[in-house]
Amino acid sequence: MEERMLNQRGSGILLHFTSLPSPFGIGDFGPWSYRFADFLAETKQTYWQCLPLNPTDIEYGNSPYHSMSAFGFNPLLVSPELLLQDGILTRADLEPAPVFPCNRVEFELVVPYKLRLLSLAWARFKKEGTNGEYRNFCSRHASWLDDFALFVALKKEFNGRPWNEWPAALRHRDAEALRRERERLSETVQEQKFFQYLFFRQWSSLKKYCAARGIRLIGDVPIYVVYDSADVWMHPDLFNLDHEKRPITVAGVPPDYFSKTGQLWGNPVYRWETLQSTGYEWWVNRIRHNLDLMDVVRVDHFRGFMAYWEVPATETIAVNGRWVEAPGMDFFTRLASVFPDLPIIAEDLGTITPDVWAAMEHFRFPGMKVLLFAFDESLPRNAYAPHNHTKNAVVYTGTHDNNTARAWFEKELGDQDRARLSRYLGREVNADTVHRELIRLALMSVADTAIVPMQDLLGLGEGARMNRPATEQSNWQWRLAPEQLTAPLAKELQELTELYGRAPR
Questions:
Q1: Which of 21, 272, 409, 497 measures 20 to 30 Å from 206, CA to CA?
Q2: Three-state DSSP class for 453?
Q3: pTM given for the model
Q4: Quick check: helix, strand or coil at residue 186?
Q5: β-bridge mates for residue 309, sequence order
Q6: Which residue in the list 348, 401, 437, 456 is annotated as catalytic?
């Protein structure tokens, strides 16, 4: 069972699928995802952690945490190579192709190219006649898929305008207006369903391949959804909106490590009393949906289930907000009744209060111990320091929001902190060795699970950073180069994994 699995000693790598090598400008579920699964198995890893798999948008900086759907899948992850093997694409379809850089994702090049390929695949698939697998997929996922596909079709119809600027009948989801648009835009709606089907089909094959090699998949569930999303359009009553369906308050966090003015995320906050009255049905469905995809889910911003930082929608920064209590204990009690072995990792970074700790302890959710936060002046009592770790935890060298270990040492760590780190280890540390030292600390930790970002395994600098919170430029672009996955690297990781008792038994 997944809960017991998280309480077994193991380790893994954090690498999002977009960061895999691919000839098509962005990582996907093609051959390199299988090669990476083989690499994980060869090095005795237990976990492959990724970021959310929901659709991304250039408008939101291509962030997987700001999606138009909490249920939809990202079609950019569909592999053209696998579509070639299936006969849904031809070699001729792949041309003309842009010249893609191999070390980063250029979304401006990738998006139109891959969507063109997917449209060609749809035209061929439709011509040959839809199959039973496709129809079964559409039927099984109809509760979210029908309106998601219509939402995307309407967005295209209205040149990308947000749903609150659509005609009133569509804004307010008049049944007859929706029926007419669904019929009128039937071709686009069916095409979008097909894109989702391709994702699910390729993902299911990859998941089975990973499972056969003992690799468990850790996904990521953002707490909030984007205002201009299918979810808010479909369920406006679940969010704090006014009578015109505009946000009254939005989500964020107060000033913290990442920002002196806090982070203003801009997502509408939930009406928890409404969710509670439905038995948290929308959230139950969301968690079930994610557990169908993943073995374990990391819940982003876990403390927001106990209390959340809300900011008036008119504000431009997060400082002028307030904490509002949420029914977290009741919510997770409900989830635990539906999913008895609820496999959740709680993202417990930032401002944490006793009620958050109490909930995590009650439900036995492991929290996160990030080593990059461990070596300040509070080191002896710092919860992130290895000597203070507990078994029921997941230790990371860093996360997708942090700098790489090397860049952290070079650019963020003060002289006193560097000296403190060296004293802690009992030997001098430098930019060339810090990533190996932190990996050793993570793997030797008493924490049941250890996760290392791929960038840290490679000892890469700031250019490999995945995300810079509170910014929208140059994020989510880093990619692994094929030549970086070497035999010596695999041997070193395998030996360390076995040495510190994290290899599967």
A1: 497
A2: strand
A3: 0.96
A4: helix
A5: 252, 323
A6: 401
How far apart, in whole angstroms, are the C-alpha atoms of residue 194 and residue 78? 11
Answer yes or no: 401 catalytic. yes
Active-site annotation holder among 228, 231, 300, 310: 300
Whole-number Å distance between alpha carbons of 338 and 422: 47
Distances 352 to 327, 359, 373, 381, 444 between C-alpha atoms, Å:
16, 11, 15, 16, 26
Q: Which helix (H) or strand (E) holds 279?
A: none
- Residue length of the chain: 505
Measured CA to CA, the distance from residue 264 to residue 470 in angstroms comes to 8
- C-alpha R_g of the chain: 23
132 Cα distance to chain centroid? 31
Of 347, 348, 448, 456, the catalytic one is: 347
CA distance 485 to 472: 29
Nearest to 291 by CA among 367, 202, 219: 219
How does strand 47-49 pair with strand 216-221?
parallel
Cis peptide before 96 (omega within 30 of 0): yes
Taking the C-alpha atoms of residue 357 and residue 365, their distance in angstroms, rounded to an integer, is: 10
Residue 220 falls in the annotated catalytic set? no
- What residue has token string 């802690």? 424
DSSP 290-334: HHHH-SEEEETTGGGGTEEEEEETT-SSSSS-EEEE--HHHHHHH
Per-residue confidence in pLDDT tens, the chain, 505 aa? 344 567 899 999 999 999 999 999 999 999 999 999 999 999 999 999 999 999 999 988 999 999 999 999 999 999 999 999 999 999 999 999 999 999 999 999 999 999 999 999 999 999 887 788 999 999 999 999 999 999 999 999 999 999 999 999 999 999 999 999 999 999 999 999 999 999 999 999 999 999 999 999 999 999 999 999 999 999 999 999 999 999 999 999 988 766 788 889 999 999 999 999 999 999 999 999 999 999 999 999 999 999 999 999 999 999 999 999 999 999 999 999 999 889 999 999 987 899 999 999 999 999 999 999 999 999 999 999 999 999 999 999 999 999 999 999 999 999 999 999 999 999 999 999 999 999 999 999 999 999 999 999 999 999 999 999 878 778 999 999 999 999 999 999 999 999 999 999 8
Amino acid identity at 405: A
The span from the CA of 122 to the CA of 198, in Å, is: 10
With CA atoms as reference, report the closest residue to 14 among 347, 473, 361.
Answer: 347
457, 13 Cβ separation under 8 angstroms: yes
* Owner of token pair 């250890």: 450
Cα–Cα distances (Å) from 265 to 283, 301, 449, in that order, read 20, 12, 30
